């Protein structure tokens, strides 16, 4: 199978620019290969963030693979309505109290680990935390990660990202 194709842009470069804040992880580093536990192990990495703007009322946390060989990338994880008091997620974390985990592109509300096609180039897994100016996006039942991204657009005050890679 031939997987040659153009490299997808950073997905957030296609949206209106917003200020950045800091996203940290003891498990993953931008540009470096993720551990197997965050691939086939389906364990979300530890994340913590700080420096978000005053006026932040909630967070949206997600993981997106722009390099998936599909026209629309691949959503691995989305948490919406994360309370502003939550500024970290432990490795393998469930949705914090008050937050909602949306079904990812595998149909699961849990983190689905990296699984690029064997032999494909390294895929980027963009972990993002979006600081929002609302406590809740008020998403309808069954909303998808794409709907969450769309509905958050006018509410994003700032964004933090980490982009580790994975290949097999």
From TrEMBL:
Domain of life from the UniProt record: Bacteria
Gene3D superfamilies according to UniProt: PEBP-like
CDD domains: PEBP_bact_arch
Chain positions covered by the region annotation Disordered: 28-47
Family the UniProt entry places it in: Belongs to the UPF0098 family.
PANTHER family: PEBP (PHOSPHATIDYLETHANOLAMINE-BINDING PROTEIN) FAMILY PROTEIN, UNCHARACTERIZED PROTEIN YBCL-RELATED
Protein name from the UniProt record: YbhB/YbcL family Raf kinase inhibitor-like protein
Organism this protein belongs to: Kineococcus aurantiacus
Source species taxonomy: Bacteria, Bacillati, Actinomycetota, Actinomycetes, Kineosporiales
